[in-house]
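Exercise: predict the fold of this chain.
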Amino acid sequence: MNHKINIDAQEIPFIIECEDILLREYMVKDVDAIFKITHEPEIRQFLPGWDVPREQRLEWLTNYEIVENRQFLQAVQNGGDVGQLRLRLAMVLKATDECIGWCNTGPKEELPQPNREIMYGISNQHYNKGYTTQAVRALIQFLFQNTSERELSALAVLHNHASNKVIQKCGFKYVGEIELEQERHHLYKLRRES
């Protein structure tokens, strides 16, 4: 999978193509979809604190997330050492261009090094269609082929069976349980082959 990385924000955004979805770098037009999804009961349950007011979501998107995406993609273009940078990608249905979730990567400070996490969220209207698995697999492949990252982590709350299933389907190996923010999580790791 080859990806042309444009670092000029005026050009076509960075995209990873999957079977049914696209992973596309965040754009300002995603704010309403992301805001709506973060207020769904399932997202609020498993990602508390993501359900901020729309104004806060817009500020984060425009002043931090889009800016850091550009820095991440520049680092990839400059040799692949992405350090502590994060990449946030919208999960977009090919058929409708609708933003239905996200698939992101970045350091998880609470984990021992190396601590680059893959994390995701999807609208409850699109559960059980394989979209999240497609997104996670595509992001893993991109990171291992285009960055210096050699190991990735994934976390799921013990009772989030769907998320645990996605992580396992994507090849992550179970490491054990860890407590974060007063809740038990399954911790998984995936290492790049040679």
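Check your answer against the key: The helical segments are 31-38, 41-46, 54-77, 131-146, 161-169.
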